[in-house]
Amino acid sequence: MISDINDFNKVFFIGVAGVGMSAIAQYLAGIGKDVSGSDRYFLPGVYNDTKDKLEKEGIKCFLQDGEGITEATQLVVVSTAIEDTVFEVQKAKELKIPIIRRSALLALITRSKRTIAIGGTSGKSTTSAMLFDILQLAGMGPGIISGAGLVSIIKEGKIGNAKVGNGEWLVVEADESDGSIVEYEPEIGVLLNVDKDHQEIDELMSLFTTFKNNSKKFIVNQSNELSRTLSQSKDQDFSVDENSGAGYIATNFEQHGFNIQYSVAKSLRSEPSQTRATPNESSIQFSINSIGKHTMENGLAAAAVANQIGVDLQTCADALKNYEGIYRRHQVLGQKHGIWVIDDYAHNPVKCAASIAACQQVAPKVVAWFQPHGYGPTRFLKDDFVKEISSVLRDEDEIWMSEIFYAGGTADKSISAKELIDDIAERGKNAFFVEDRQNFLSEARSHLTENSVLLLMGARDPSLEQFGRDVYLEI
Known about the structure:
This protein is of the alpha/beta class. Helix content is 32%, strand content 22%. It is built from 14 helices and 22 strands. The protein has a 6-stranded mixed sheet, with helices on both faces. The chain has a 6-stranded mixed sheet with strand order 17-18-22-19-20-21, with helices on both faces. Strands 3-2-1-4-5 form a 5-stranded parallel sheet, with helices on both faces. Strand 13 (248-256) and strand 14 form a beta hairpin.
């Protein structure tokens, strides 16, 4: 029975190249565990960047043929994407090796540290990275297990989604998409927002309610209609609404190109009976080299959490002034011929709309391309995609889509991205479908004008990074 991270040493990950799996694998290797793993993307004689970086961290990588699992293996880790029919799972069962889900293993890790778990349907990776940077500058030696690579860590030659700190705090993402968020019992839980994504709102609220109940302290975004209903105490919450009564308020948002600025004031209730918070200290000016009001909310959340564990707001501002961003979150690939090319992980309706809106402050025309992932999620969110994207597009903006990304397994393919495009076009918007994304640039090139933004959006597909690079090179 595995009930503590000290109950095992030799651990094997099936699907170790996945962003969630690789983060935990690196963390365990960093604390001295004997870690190995396999992945279907590891092919004989073919270079794999993730494999190379994992092996540099001391993680031995195998083809997904069962060779890496032996009688000496004490624990096998699988993600929700790994089905019981996979050969390696069957081998582990034959050898009677305990098998644990990625989320359950992360829950064990969080119990070994003072953990801050960042939850919500948008912004988890960005907020986690910002909080990590703040705690680092404050000298607190934090660790992080993230769903995306931090540029600052990537520059060290690593994948960038995990780091073992020498301090007592660990920052993790708490994922609601697979329901695993209910397994964590953090010292501090943070809820950024609640919007329809992988589940219906009622299901999401049930998950986040359990998340709240499992957290010693719970901090929420008072600006979000649903998240504020789960507030534990307004004094510790944050908001961009001056009248919300939240303990941390951000105002005076401005965006100039690829830089945002805003002010943060901390407020405290002078009397428990008061219904309005009153300013307790002067506003601190924040400046971040990124785009969008949603980035301000993420930065505000990180500052609110950090301040409540002893970091002053000026130190928070100083840290975020040098924030370098995370992989594929409004990642600027460059500018050519007056066209900015930006790569983003946006993949649900609210995220896509927010991403487009943020780019609208950079140039008078945005040409957005989106590859939906998963036939089930696309069908589930179809009407929301149409509504959110249509509402944000200006007259000169355009939305392009290629066919839905298929990751394998059983799926009902009776929906196409073309249906979303047709419905958006019916609303009078500039909407175009190009089935094969390899034909996108040739068909869209004449639509790209000087002083415009080409925004590439999509998730889950590991080849999107290279696709973005190819588009930028060929533009």
